[in-house]
Amino acid sequence: MTTLFDAYDLSGRPLRNRVVMAPMTRARAPGNIPTEDTMRYYAQRASAGLIVTEGTPISPEGNGFVDCPGLWNDAQVSAWRHVTDAVHDAGGTIFTQIWHVGRMSHVSLQPGGGAPVSSTSKQAAHSAAFGYDEAGQPAFVTASTPRALALDEIPRVVGDFANAARRAVDAGFDGVEIHGANGYLVEQFINGAVNDRTDRYGGNTVEHRARFALDVVDACIAAIGRERVGIRLSPFGRLHELGDFDGEADTFLYLARELGARKIAYVHIMDQASRGAPAMPEGFLERFREAYRGTLILAGGLDFDKATQLVERGTIDLAAFGAPYIANPDLVERLRHGWPIAEVDPATYYGGDARGYLDYPHYTGQAAA
Description:
The protein is of the alpha/beta class. Helix content is about 30%, strand content about 15%. The protein has helices at about 35-45, 75-90, 155-170, 185-190, 205-225, 250-260, 285-290, 305-315, 325, 330-335; strands at about 10, 15, 20, 50-55, 95-100, 115-120, 130, 140, 145-150, 175-180, 230-235, 265-270, 295-300, 320. The strands form 4 sheets. An 8-stranded parallel barrel has the order 3-4-5-10-11-12-13-14, surrounded by 4 helices. A two-stranded antiparallel ribbon has the order 1-2. Strand 4 (about 50-55), helix 2 and strand 5 form a beta-alpha-beta unit. The protein is globular and about 55 Å long. This is Alkene reductase. Keywords: Oxidoreductase. One of its GO terms (molecular function) is FMN binding. InterPro entries: Aldolase_TIM (IPR013785), OxRdtase_FMN_N (IPR001155), Oye-like (IPR045247).
């Protein structure tokens, strides 16, 4: 019987267990450069089978959060190398999530104060980026009105993903996870309620909706190899004002088949029911699994029992945990032994110092367990 604690072969890369640290924005990289604290944070959690870092913008244009560590210049690559070396020295495996937020940005974060770019010119008027307020202080601010990418601009953005993938490998990462979820740029093309284009990247057909995502995947494969490329998707997600649309299930099942044909490292599904979205339709995860036969990761609302059941049944291969990993750097051992799971302090999620970042202890009550 397969358990969460069994080793796993990820495209030829051995993982020591099937527990994944999910990507989580922490906003603690001044100037968009990882720090020594970044290194310590990930090294503390290296007992995970796989770490996926916080979203890492591929370009200044792709940034939607103050103090997110990026991957568009040499200084960032050098700083990330200290992080990856520390995780590898601790026996871990680490991918970075490469990210373009699209319309979920603010003019205060954009080069020259320009409009964010997207598949659309429709504003996410009730959603926030973490930019600078009128006083110049970091704050949640309403996402700015975007401009739709011109058709001849799209190859440049696809190229930015590929360049970030190359830089990730140069920085020592084992691979990259393309952020195709949570209402950011890739999903702004996938989602037919947001994507109102009428060209070959438009929202009117399954193939057109999926084209940008698959172009990004193909460019990253060409840059670093299929075994180093994963992608995160959030079927039926509603974050950042995504709406439902005709053919939603068909779109994600089409992506499942296309991604399976490309034999990438993995697909990472984010179940947004844990974030207030409607539940995925009954049986959809199993249908996705049938369409995509590669490594499948699930995040969102998992506890030990649910994750164990899904892995035992073969519905998923790896189980990802987000917030529990903030407060429990030794989460694998806590799950293995049934030790208490510490509660996270949401007030320290974004920005700040080592409090709520490096000061969560490993469990020390083993003798009483």
